[in-house]
Write a structure and sequence with these properties.
Length: 249
Amino acid sequence: MFNKEEQTRKIIEFIQDYFQKCHLGGVVIGISGGKDSAVVAALFAKAIGEENILGVTMPCHSKEEDKEDAKLIADTYHFPLINVDLTKTYDTFHEEVEKLSEFTKSEDSDINLKPRLRMSTLYYLAQMMSKKEHKTYIVAGTGNKCEEYVGYFTKGGDSVSDIKVLADLTVEEVIQVGEVLKVPEKVLYKTPSDGLSGKSDEDKLGVTYKDIAKVIHQEEVAEEVKEKIEAMHKNCEHKFHIPTYFQDK
């Protein structure tokens, strides 16, 4: 049984221990307006103090509502929130690639470009803040266990971070931690989406997060659903491990 109060406390202690061990000073978090980044921000606010957090919104042909929800989270937990609009950067990159006649337009490439630009932005800002504040800032990941299991993340994008605090929590468990931390209901119970493709996560995946959690926990689920989820997990093996050749010694 998942004890939400106990797990919330343990995650906060995990963050504090890591920051102390590695002599870290702050964190940069991409605030999407969704539950995962909201819970991550709330955890860090409790663990290291809101004054050591920099929240970042990075719209890229995004919905205005997401930016408003991100501001709600920043206001709730009292950390600064800056906006870096990546729309022109994305468009310029896209225009350059379109000049290459040997390539045809790819919707997946377009969608995955956005989180890759966002991650570059977060690391740029983390390094900038480290120099400005004379203490080391790192980038926090916001992915949860369900997303990780089926490979619902972008290599070189939202898969990249310096610390992961939700990667062993299912979507339902993330919500429970959010309830402990009093994340605003408007955000906590919001339909999950990447804010990039115009579709909900579950629409894109073709399965529900609840069923993914059941497969993870080896609970009963329709056989065809189980097979689909396990196929996604297997087909994304290349995302989980980077093969490295080592010389024989």
